[in-house]
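step 3/5: co-fold with uridine-5'-diphosphate
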Amino acid sequence: MKVLVTGGAGYIGSHFVKQLIENGYKTVVVDNLSRGHKEAIHPDSVHENASLLDFKKLSGIISNHKPDAIVHFAAFAYVGESVKNPALYYENNVVGSFNLIRASTDIGVNNFVFSSTCSIYGNPEKIPIDETQKSNPINPYANTKLTIEKMLDDFESAYGLRSVSLRYFNAAGADPDSNIGESHIPEPHLIPIVLQVALGKRGKVFIYGNDYDTPDGTCIRDYIHVNDLAAAHIKALEFLIEKNKSEIINLGTGYGNSVLEIIQKSEEITGRKVNYEFVERRKGDPAVLVADNKKAFNLLNWKPEYSIEDIISSAWKWHQNQKY
Ligand code: UDP
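step 4/5: write tokens
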């Protein structure tokens, strides 16, 4: 079976491609390297350097390779940037996805897995969050992701596209057995920032708020290992092929950790001091985001295998010897 993966040079995409190849799939990575890393592309994968905004080129690639399925990771994903420059996000994420979805339905590739996000829930009504909760995005990035979910739904009704949209909670960690990991420039995410402080690359962690309604006052997130996410995408592909049915599914562990807990666990794992300072809340941060992941278990027979300690220690290994 052949899978076309957009964003296969990115953080989650590269971990997914590795697992696909280990499971005997053929892969085609479509990535223009605008935010991905050439070094992250698996040596056994075909690479097509193309922008999703180039409809003609994209259609040519899909017709040429005739994949059995498309898994779509490529997107811009900085919330702050999306607030400052929504045009960039609507163009790259919505127009790019539209081109991809249109090309795949035109050509008759009807199995589609989409990288979505828990930020679609906005400030959730209850915790843990299941898929029946109302979507209420509070930033342009999340708006683009919800728009794409809706586009997939409309293309299903009219053209028979089948899709699984996977709403990730906080992706973290790195593959312990290879040289791929998380590298964003600039880096907005907590665990890499904490580990950069442990390495002496930054002075301290600025903790955004300690007056939230949580046991220690700092925000709680559901951190999920990138290899667990990758494994869920393979299960989603199998589900699509077997059941020929579209679904929206949360991917999280069902457990939350506060910012202070992440810092404390990182100090234990690295043996280094991690200095921090409390600063103002970051706009748009909900106090607690934790997944109800029963649907993923029931439909995909998937459950996460990595603990928060595994997440931090695999990320630590990567950051100590970061390749890109
Ligand atoms: N956070 C923080 N300082 C930082 C980066 C993040 O206090 O320098 C907090 C942030 O407010 C959130 C949590 O850490 O509560 C996780 O943030 P991240 O950006 O990693 O993921 P998000 O939940 O925003 O997707």
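step 5/5: annotate
The mean pLDDT is 97.
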